[in-house]
Design goal:
- With 187 residues, the chain is α+β, with helices and mostly antiparallel strands.
- It folds into three domains: 44 residues; 106 residues, no CATH class; 32 residues.
- Helices cover 49% and strands 29% of the residues.
- The chain is built from three helices and five strands; from the N terminus they run H-E-H-E-E-E-E-H.
- The strands form two sheets. Strands 1-5-4 form a three-stranded antiparallel β-sheet, with helices on both faces. Strands 2-3 form a two-stranded antiparallel ribbon.
- A hairpin with a 2-residue loop joins strand 4 and strand 5.
- The chain is elongated.
Length: 187
C-alpha cells in the first residue's frame, strides 16, 4: 500500500510536467509561426518597400497592412501610403502614444497604444495615384503592400487642370471689379 502512495505522486508529477511541456510546446510553435510570417512578409515585400523609386517628376510613398479581410488589408495599406504622401506635401500629424513597461527578475511586460491622426487641410494632393498593390496570404490573414505616387510639376496633369480652372474662376470673379476700377478712374 505504501508503494501505491509513493507511485501516485510520482505519476502526478510526471503528468504535470507532460502537460506543462505541452503548453510550452504550443507557445513555441506559435512563436515560430509568427517569426516565419514576419520573415515571409519581408521576403515577399516588393523592392519598393525598402527602396522607393526616385524621380524628378513624382514623389513616392509606400504602405503595408495586415487584415483577415482581403479588401481591408489593401484599404489600410493605401491609407498609410496616402498619409505619407500627404506628409511629404506639407501635411501635419497629431500623434499620441501611451506606453506601460514593467520589468522584474523573472519577466517583462510591455503594452503600448498609439493613435495617429493625419490631417491634410490646405495640402492638395490632387493627382496622387496608386501605382501598385501586391497582396499575399499570411496564414489566415492578408498582407497588402501599396506604392503611391504624387506627380510634380508638369507631370501632374490633374493638378494643372485644377489650377487652370481655379485661375479661370478667379478671372471671372475679378473681371467685374477690374472694369469697375477703370470706370471709376475715368470720372
Amino acid at each position: 500500500m505504501k508503494k501505491v502512495f509513493m507511485v501516485v505522486p510520482l505519476v502526478a508529477a510526471l503528468a504535470a510536467c507532460s502537460t506543462a511541456e505541452k503548453f510550452e510546446k504550443r507557445t513555441e510553435v506559435q512563436y515560430e509561426r509568427e517569426v516565419k510570417y514576419a520573415d515571409k512578409a519581408v521576403e515577399k515585400a516588393p523592392k519598393w518597400m525598402s527602396q522607393l523609386p526616385e524621380s524628378q517628376n513624382a514623389v513616392y510613398a509606400n504602405g503595408t497592412a495586415v487584415s483577415r479581410d482581403y479588401s481591408m488589408s489593401s484599404l489600410k495599406a493605401k491609407s498609410f501610403a496616402y498619409s505619407k504622401i500627404c506628409m511629404a506635401a506639407g501635411g501635419k500629424v497629431d500623434q499620441q502614444t501611451k506606453m506601460f513597461m514593467m520589468d522584474s527578475e523573472s519577466a517583462g511586460t510591455e503594452m503600448s497604444e498609439t493613435a495617429i491622426r493625419t490631417s491634410c487641410p490646405g495640402v492638395d494632393i490632387t493627382g496622387a495615384e496608386t501605382v501598385e498593390v501586391k497582396t499575399v496570404a499570411e496564414g489566415t490573414r492578408f498582407r497588402s503592400y501599396v506604392l503611391v505616387a504624387l506627380p510634380t510639376g508638369d507631370a501632374n496633369q490633374l493638378q494643372a487642370r485644377k489650377d487652370k480652372i481655379r485661375a479661370q474662376e478667379l478671372a471671372r470673379q475679378r473681371s467685374p471689379e477690374a472694369f469697375k476700377d477703370l470706370d471709376t478712374q475715368k470720372q
